[in-house]
Design brief:
Blueprint lengths: L4 H5 L7 E14 L2 E8 L2 E8 H4 L1 H8 L6 E10 L7 E12 L12 H6 L1 H4 L3 H23 L3 E3 L4 E2 L11 E4 L2 E5 L4 H11 L1 E9 L12 E10 L3 H22 L1 H6 L4 H5 L7 E3 H10 L12 H8 L6 E4 L22 E6 L4 E8 L4 H10 L9 H5 L8 E7 H9 L20
Parallel strand pairs: 3-5, 6-10, 12-13
Antiparallel strand pairs: 1-2, 1-4, 2-3, 4-5, 7-9, 8-9, 10-11, 11-16, 13-14, 14-15, 15-16
Helix pairs in contact: 6-8, 6-15
The structure holds 4-amino-1,4-dioxobutan-2-aminium adenosine-5'-monophosphate and magnesium ion.
Length: 431
Amino acid sequence: MYVEIGKILKGEMEGKKVSIRGWVHRQRGSGNLNFIILRDASGRIQCAIKKEKVGEKSFTEASQVYIESSVEIVGTVKKDERAPGGWELQVDDFRMVSRGEPFPISKDLSEEFLLDVRHLWLRSRKLVAAMKARHHLVNYLREYLDGDGFYEIVPPVITKSQCEGGSTLFAMDYFGEPAYLSQSGQLYAEVMIFGLGKVYAFAPSFRAEKSRTIRHLAEYWHLEPEMAWYSHEDNMKLQEDMISYTVQKFVKEHPDLLEELERDPAKLKKVKAPFPRMLYDDAVEQVNKLGGKMEIGQDFGADEEAILTKEYEKPLFVEKFPKGIKAFYMREDPKKPGYVLNNDLLAPEGHGEIIGGSERIWDYNELIARMKEFGLDPNGDMKWYVDLRRYGSVPHSGFGMGIERLTKWVLGLNHIRDAIPFPRTITRCYP
Ligand code: 4AD
Ligand code: MG
């Protein structure tokens, strides 16, 4: 019976004879003794191969492995403080599954090269840890929303309507008609709240971002909750509770992954609701005070967000932006004309925006007026969206969070591309 290496490392197999299978992480040897560090998805273990035990033929094979050759090994589990991880397998039998060719990735390789061989680099310790972490983060988000009575819904990926403005749309040919890859499932999530109350979409979003930055992808995974009857206030409360739950659970359950990625858990332990809040106007003033340069009516870029969040240990809400610089569907603040009931949530340590959310315009006349201001046709491809305000409209709110932005911050990654297996950016669509 094959066992996972992780099970051995947990100390559950001491003294037992086991079979393991996996890939060669390292190999070194001399005369009659050979060491292979074997890895599988659950961990790494040192295997000591003696010629007198496995015989001439197997011993020669074992000394000819490459990095990433796949092998099967039978051996006896021994505690050994000198071995990495504290356990060693004393090998009785060795079998090559596929020796393959010399692995092209060795030391000191450039970022560009590693992106070219992404399909192989995804076996690296760092990316394996990041992919596991992403999986857990998504699970905890789902767990939180499920516990709060949300239904998961599926928005279409091919759409006629634009959600976040025309400039970053990927156009496609849809049987001879123009259509677009979705920038956001929000407008469709809004449809679903009338039947289901609280919903979330989790789907890829596409942005033809021309900028080459450490936080923009052309294709990213978008979590978009949308809630009937929620105010702007309720919306922000949900965001901070969801993030606190997810981060706290992750820190508690996966210290091993944080260690592997050299991320200080103490920083994440501080991420608990409530989060600090700042009005847009004050945030602009703050940026200028701290050495940045911007005016009311401009949106924050990465630099401004870094300046703003430098002093914070928790994510920072910036709320109530001028309506002209935000999307058409955001409700105007009745108490502050010209500004909308929205928020961005900025992750600390310079990571910046991870969430954008708002209360939606739910009044028919307000929506028609705003769409006209934004040059959108209420009787065109978005007629169905306007319809929602004609039949039993209700106050509602929602937000969108980029999963790779969240993962980048939680894991302290330098670049967003390492939060997704196959990053799509302005310069790259391979592999
Ligand atoms: O702020 P955005 O554009 O808001 C919307 O799309 C709303 N319709 C969401 C909603 O209310 N349902 O995008 C939301 C989030 C951002 O805060 C960011 O985390 C992520 O999506 N995001 C990106 N992530 C990676 N690469 C990009 N190019 C991204 N653009 C946005
Ligand atoms: Mg935004």
